[in-house]
Specification:
Layout: H1 3-10, E1 17-22, E2 28-34, H2 37-43, H3 52-60, E3 63-68, H4 72-86, E4 102-105, E5 113-116, E6 125-127, H5 133-146, H6 158-162, H7 170-173, H8 187-202, H9 206-221, H10 225-241, E7 255-262, E8 266-275, E9 278-288, H11 295-309, E10 316-319, E11 331-333, H12 338-365, H13 367-381, E12 390-399, E13 402-412, E14 415-416, E15 422-425, H14 434-452, E16 459-463, H15 466-478, E17 486-490, E18 497-498, H16 513-547, H17 554-564, H18 567-572, H19 575-582, H20 584-598
Parallel strand pairs: 7-10, 10-11, 12-16, 16-17
Antiparallel strand pairs: 1-2, 1-3, 4-5, 4-6, 7-8, 8-9, 12-13, 13-14, 13-15, 17-18
Helix pairs in contact: 5-10, 9-10, 12-13, 14-15, 19-20
Length: 599
């Protein structure tokens, strides 16, 4: 496996979707679907294959492209479409003309409703496709349950009915049809049933559910439990039937879909082509942003080029941002809901997937550039005047006011610098006063840095809300550092970011790298603070035990702990070591006291 493939696999998402294997010439040689793209694609290279066909396929893989989908069901449908489009050499299924079934409402007088695998462009309505035949049959069964639509293929023109060319059949006799062939049912009444069927197929289920639930309760009241159970099963099937596909939807027609996302330095644009309601291509590109262009600017610049690349003259374009382009007879929309919005969301997921892939790849191949990009993004997100190359984060810890301590952790270029970590034993604060503790620690930390002439951080992060932040800002003001060092607070409840003097917090995207760096610093400060707090409590307990020995004072205890590190170390020490440490008389007292504790 080449380094390029190894890096590609490392950056794949744990999401459902479709993957393409390409050969050295860029030709698609295999298309597959996956519930988890990373696990599935990795499996090709992580084991020895018994099949000669698979071994040959793996040898010829030069590149891998993926398309993320909302569900595994959508991946199944998209795989079907792409195999028929590319005809890959190593795919042996789905190359024929077979397709998933649809439900058709025929464009005719007294429309028929039936299943079909062929879509005819005659004005008929098609719903689907259905990856599960059982689900499709359940839908048809439910429609038959609540409507009386004809199943015959007779030509029910107005003239043929007037001429009485047709006779009633068995379906009419058993109550499954109202006899439109002999004018026993009007076209207006028949179309009401078609409307009810159409609503069910479109996913408007509330009326159907209410009707079936009423029937179920009526059967239950009459203690006809078998019939009630049968209807309950139909309701269960109806719940499963409600799932619809995003990647293949007959009502969409032909569309070009363009979406964009970006960070401080790069933009990522996805182009998804939909033809006759099916996604036939998805392509994402990375763009350098020389002038901090917006996502709308990225789309405006790339849409003409991408349409030219894919030779598209589609008359309808969907975008994630409002864009004005001088394209004749072309409609540009920014959908807010419905099936078109679902396609926009799928396209945007693939643009974000490329962004994540580039970030992970950069982190592996060029860590310095990765750090530079994060610093630029943090500067933009936190509205800073300088990149926060040096960040210090503070957190306090105490137990009902006892053993109060604080911790300062240092991040450089977005990564922990553990040798620069510092902890503080609080000296001037009595009780559990978090605000006063924070003020003391900030004062002590930056008074010392000023005296030593050491470089100050570009950003201080306070673990806490407005109260802790205000106390810290006051301490910086007293030191003359207000405005010299940027300072923010992060509250745990909703991860909101507070700025000095601003009552309205900033809410960053939960997937934002800026927020992840701040959260990591906050969590590291909390861990470091808690660890030191526990050590202080443990040390205090040991001191209490040693000081309880008659004739052993605080100075002797301190000497013992500095030498043997712990109570366990003191107990293991020989008499000679104790004599060397505290003298013969105190050594005997320590031995006698420890023996008394043991008994």
């Amino acid at each position: 496996m080449t380094d390029k493939l190894a890096h590609t696999i490392k950056t794949l998402p744990h999401q459902p979707g479709v993957y393409h294997h390409l050969d050295a010439e860029g030709k698609v040689i295999y298309v597959g679907k996956a519930k988890d793209l990373k696990k599935r694609v990795s499996s090709y290279f992580s084991k020895t294959h018994e099949s000669a066909r698979l071994t040959l396929l793996v040898k010829r893989i030069a590149d891998i492209h993926v398309i993320e989908t909302p569900t595994e069901f959508d991946a199944l449908l998209l795989e079907n479409t792409l195999i028929k489009k590319h005809q890959p050499r190593f795919n042996i299924l789905l190359k024929d003309d077979k397709s998933y079934p649809w439900i058709c409402i025929k464009n005719e007088r007294f429309p028929r409703l039936f299943s079909t695998r062929r879509k005819v462009d005659d004005g008929s309505e098609y719903f689907g496709p259905y990856a599960s035949i059982r689900v499709m049959k359940t839908a048809l069964s439910l429609i038959n349950q609540i409507t009386t639509l004809r199943t015959c293929k007779l030509n029910l023109s107005e003239q043929s009915i007037q001429d009485k060319k047709h006779r009633l059949c068995l379906e009419y006799q058993i109550g499954n049809c109202k006899g439109p062939c002999e004018a026993l049912q009007s076209e207006e009444d028949y179309l009401k049933d078609i409307h009810a069927a159409r609503q069910l197929l479109k996913g408007h289920f509330s009326a159907t559910k209410k009707h079936l639930h009423g029937q179920m309760m009526a059967h239950s009241t009459r203690q006809d439990f078998e019939a009630a159970q049968a209807i309950k099963e139909k309701l269960d099937h109806l719940a499963k039937y409600t799932a619809r596909s995003t990647v293949v939807t007959a009502n969409l027609g032909d569309l070009d879909v363009f979406t964009a996302t970006s960070d401080a330095t790069f933009g990522y644009v996805n182009c998804t082509l939909v033809r006759q309601g099916a996604v036939v291509h998805s392509h994402s590109i990375e763009i350098k942003k020389p002038l901090d262009e917006s996502d709308a600017d990225l789309l405006r610049l790339t849409i003409p080029e991408l349409r030219l690349t894919f030779q598209s003259d589609c008359k309808q374009i969907l975008c994630s941002e409002p864009v004005e382009l001088p394209l004749q007879d072309v409609t540009i929309q920014v959908p807010q809901r419905g099936q078109k919005k679902e396609v926009i969301n799928m396209s945007l997921r693939n643009a974000k997937a490329l962004k994540l892939e580039r970030i992970k790849n950069l982190q592996i191949v060029d860590p310095e550039r990765h750090a530079n990009r994060i610093m630029q993004q943090m500067k933009v997100d936190l509205r800073l005047s300088n990149e926060p190359r040096h960040i210090e984060c503070f957190d306090n810890s105490n137990l009902q006011g006892e053993y109060p301590v604080s911790a300062c952790v240092v991040f450089k270029d977005g990564k922990p610098s553990k040798r620069d970590y510092r902890h503080f034993n609080v000296k001037t604060v009595v009780g559990a006063d978090d605000y006063a503790t924070m003020a003391e620690v900030i004062t002590r930390r930056y008074t010392r840095l000023k005296e030593e002439g050491v470089g100050l951080p570009q950003l201080i992060v306070i673990d806490g809300g407005k109260g802790q932040l205000s106390a810290s800002v006051k301490a910086l003001e007293d030191l003359g550092l207000r405005g010299v060092i940027a300072i923010i607070g992060i509250a745990k409840r909703l991860e909101e970011i507070y700025f000095p003097g601003d009552s309205v917090p900033l809410y960053l995207d939960k997937r934002s790298e800026t927020l992840k760096v701040i959260q990591q610093a906050r969590n590291e400060a909390h861990r470091f603070s808690i660890t030191h707090h526990r050590k202080q409590r443990s040390k205090s307990g040991i001191k209490s035990q040693l000081e309880a020995i008659p004739g052993i004072g605080p100075q002797a205890v301190e000497t013992l702990l500095n030498t043997f590190k712990s109570l366990k170390g003191v107990k293991k020490a020989s008499r000679e070591d104790l004599v060397t440490c505290v003298g013969k008389a105190r050594a005997d007292k320590v031995i006698k006291g420890l023996l008394a504790m043991a008994t």
